[in-house]
Amino acid sequence: MNGEKILPLAAMEKLLKKxxxxxxxxxxxxxxxxxxxxxxxxxxxxxxxxAQHSGRKTVKGVDVKLATK
Length: 69
Fold this sequence. Notes:
Layout: H1 9-18, H2 26-53, H3 61-67
Helix pairs in contact: 1-2, 2-3
């Protein structure tokens, strides 16, 4: 993803704390960010293909949901 910042580390900490972690290390936040961005990019690419297959330029929620199955 060209090293661009999409998901903030603070959001990773909030997510892990919401899951029950009392404390979150910097490397845990970075690992979570890396994995979620990679997974998100894969889903996004599939969703774009679904939209294109349907003859649309616009990616819709249904495309994203289908991409996760």
